[in-house]
Amino acid sequence: MRRRTFLKLTGGAGAGLSAFPAVLRAQASWPNKPVKVIVPFGAGGGTDSLARFWAEKLSQAFGQPFVVENRGGGSGIIGSEAVAKSPPDGYTLLLSSNSPTVNLPLLRKLPYDPASLRPIVRVGDAATGFCVHPSTGLKSVKDLIDYAKANPDKLACCSAGVATSSHMRMEMLALRTGVKFLHIPYRGGADALNDLLAGTVQFMNDPTCNPSAKAGKLNMLCINHSARSPDFPDAPTLTQAGYPNSDVPLWFAIWTHTDMPQPIVDALHAKVTELSKAPDASARLLLSGMLPVTSTQTELLAFREAEIKATGDLIKSANIKLE
């Protein structure tokens, strides 16, 4: 490379050459202070539980605190916006489901550019399903559908918010079966679960329900996954229950500002992938209703694009709109 061209690319011998090593040193020493992990939903929900597990693991692995901060509201918009508008220095991360990062941008104009967020690594896929309050007397997905057909808009389904995956799963099942449910959105899974346990609403599909279903407080009718959950061996998958192509994946990832330096992205991806393969990680994830999953960054970005298309098709077919 000619000297003149080199100086043009680096901004001159003074500014460019002095600043470039400083950037490299900052990346190489990351993290040298606490890292904020924003959860765009309230404390106590499935996303929060997953975030605290990974924050603990990453704190141990990198020798710096990874601190969870809950910023609920707006179906995940508030917390996601905070990360999208944060400095891309690796010290503000988002741990979220695909709801605010894939679903919501298809439904409304956001106060930030959705392209300013990108997933670093998947940290778990939800292994949960439709849970009903025992007072309903419903024992299967067929019971749920039959009752809804006979009583349109009488069965209330709560969700973690409009356009969250718990909402989209209800819409997909309704679309595939031609029934009508009454959707009740909340500010997060924990708030919705409280009303479900009280019998104020009748059913829900969210990882937050899993512990209560295991304790017998709710009935797990099915599993929204390709295989049965070891926690609920008697609950069939939706396909096994007779409703193929009725699932909407619920997956979780660590997200970051698109402009975050690639070496930091690589370090986080490599460490989470390594930790995901440990037996204790699988056991802890199962307790939260999650299944460990790994993929390359290229595979993850391709998966997200496929999800955007599939979700967009569902929104159009079901005529889903923000209320």
Report strand %: 15-25%
What oligomeric state do the depicted chains represent?
Answer: single chain
- N-to-C order of helices and strands: HHEHEHEHEEHEHEHEHEEHHEH
CATH topology descriptor of the largest domain = D-Maltodextrin-Binding Protein, domain 2
CATH homologous superfamily label of the largest domain: Bordetella uptake gene, domain 1
Q: List the total number of helices.
A: 12
Binned, the helix content reads 40-55%
The separation of the N and C termini measures: 58 Å
The number of E-state strands comes to 11
Gross morphology? globular
Radius of gyration equals 21 Å
Average pLDDT metric:
88
What are the low-pLDDT stretches, counting only 5+ consecutive residues below 50? 1-23
Strand adjacency order, main sheet? 2-1-3-10-4-11
Structural class comes to alpha/beta
